[in-house]
Amino acid sequence: MQGVQPAQPLARVNGAGIAWRSLGLVIGLAAVIIVGLLSLRIGSIDISTRDAWNALFNYNSDVYNETVVRTLRLPRTVIAIAVGAALAIAGTTMQGVTRNPLADPSILGVSSGATFAVVTVTYYLHLSTPSQYVWFAFIGALAASLLVFAIGSTGQDGASPIKLALAGVVLSAFLGSWTSALLLLDENTLDTVRFWLAGSVVGRDLATFWSLAPFLIGGSLVLLFLGHQLNVLDLGDDSARALGMQTGRIRLICSVLVVIVVGAAVSIAGPIAFVGLATPHIVRSIVGPDYRWVLPYSALAGALLLTVADISGRILLRPSEIQVGIMTALVGAPFLIYLARRTVMERG
Fold first, then answer.
1. Would you tell me the crossing angle of helices 324-347 and 291-316 to the nearest 10 degrees?
2. 116 touches 81 (CB < 8 A)
3. What is the predicted pLDDT for the residue at 8?
4. Calpha distance 297→32 (Å, rounded)
5. Are 90 and 145 a contacting pair, CB within 8 Å?
6. Phi/psi of residue 195, each to 5°?
7. Are 81 and 140 in contact (CB under 8 A)?
8. Phi, psi of 259 (to 5 degrees)
9. How high is the mean pLDDT in each 10-residue block of the chain (348 residues)?
10. Burial of 10 (0-12, 13-18, 19+ CB in 10 A)
C-alpha cells in the first residue's frame, strides 16, 4: 500500500513557528474545556452554569439538576472527550504506519471483533448492560486483531500493510455476517445492543470508563510520543532503513498500541466511524505533515469533534436524541467521498 504522494523532507520549524503551534495547542485545550462545559449544560433539560459548576465542585444530591449533571452528563462528557481523542490519535498513527490516507483503526478488524463478541455473549449469556459486556468487547477486539496479524503475516514478505488490510477486510466481512445472523435470530439481542452498535456515549458510568482507562489513556499517551518514528516511516521504507530504523518493529509496536487503544474505545462507546479517518486530514491542513505536531493536535480535534457531535445529537431531535455514532457518520460520509475523489485526482 503506497502513500498518495512521495514523502517530502519536513521543513525545519523555527522558534516563532514552535511558539505559534504551542499557542494553538493551548487554544485547542481551552476549546475542549469550553465544549465540555457546554456538554454538561445542554440536553433534554437546560441546566444553568451555576448548577453545572456546583455539580462538579459542590455537589448536593438533593438538587435534581446537579444529580443529572453528576450521574448522566459528566460521564458521557468525559467518555466523549477521551474516546474522541483516542480514536483520532489511533487514526493518525494508522495513516502514518501504512502511509495510506484512507487508513482507519477499524482496518485491523478491531470494531468487527468487538461487535461480534458483544452480540455473541448477549445472545448466549443474555447480558443486558454495558458494564457486563464491555470486557467481552475488549477481548473480542484484541482477538480479532491478533487473528488479522496472524493471517497477514503468512508468506515470505511478512506482515505488509496491504496484506494486513486485506486480512482485516476479509475477517470483518466474515464476523459481520455472523453478527447479522445472530441479530436476526433474536430480537431481544438486537434491542439490547442496538445503541452500542450505533455508537453511543449514553448510559456509561465512570466506573466502567476508569476500568478501561489504563488501556485507553495509557496507550494514547505512548502513541503521542511516537511522532518522530512516524516522520521517519513517512520518508519510505528504504530511507527509514538507511537512517537505521527497524521499520517492521516500529510498525508492530504502533499497530499493537492502536489495537489496544481502539479496542478500549470501542468497548466503551461502540464502533464510532470517521473520527479516526477525518481528524488527521483536518489537522494536517492546519499544522502540516509533521507527526510530532499532528498527533497532539489530532487528540484535541478528535475530542472536540466527538463532543460537538454528541451535543448536536441532543439538540436536533429534542427531547429525543441521535446517537453520536450516527452523527459522525452523517458528517463523515461526505468527507470520505471528498477525500477519495481528491486522492484519485492527485494520482491523476
1. 130
2. no
3. 52
4. 12
5. no
6. -70, -40
7. no
8. -60, -45
9. 47 73 92 93 84 86 87 92 94 85 73 85 78 78 84 72 78 86 80 77 83 89 92 84 83 86 85 85 87 94 93 83 84 71 64
10. middle
Q: Which residue, chain included where needed, has cell 508468506?
A: 155
- Residue listed under C-alpha cell 475542549: 32
- Burial-class residue 232 by CB neighbours within 10 Å (0-12, 13-18, 19+): buried
Q: Which three cell numbers stand for residue 292?
A: 510530532
Q: Identify the burial level of 335 via C-beta atoms within 10 angstroms of its C-beta, where 0-12 means exposed, 13-18 middle and 19 or more buried.
A: middle
Cell numbers placing 67? 444529580
pLDDT of 4: 42
| pTM score | 0.86
| CA–CA gap between residue 336 and residue 192 (Å, rounded) | 30
Write out the three cell numbers for 2: 503506497
Instruction: Give the integer Cα–Cα distance in Å for 215 and 294.
Output: 21
Q: Distance (Å, rounded) from C-alpha 222 to C-alpha 345?
A: 35
Please, what is the angle between helix 110-125 and helix 187-198, to 10°? 150
Copy the grid coordinates of residue 207.
466506573
Roughly what angle, to the nearest 10 degrees, separates helices 247-269 and 206-224?
160
How far CA 67 is from CA of 10, 39, 202, 290, in Å, comes to 51, 15, 16, 44
Using the structure block, give the residue that is written with the C-alpha cell 448492560: 129
77 in Cβ contact with 68 (< 8 Å): no
| Cα-based torsion angle of the residue sequence 265, 269, 274, 277 in order, rounded to the nearest 10 degrees | -10
Q: Is the peptide bond before 319 cis (omega within 30 degrees of 0)?
A: yes
What pLDDT score does 339 carry? 67
Give burial (CB, 10 Å; 0-12/13-18/19+) of 318.
exposed
CA distances from 70 to 42, 54, 57, 63, 80 (A): 14, 10, 10, 11, 15
Predicted pLDDT of residue 236:
81
| 101: region left, alpha or beta (phi > 0 left; psi from -120 to 50 alpha) | alpha
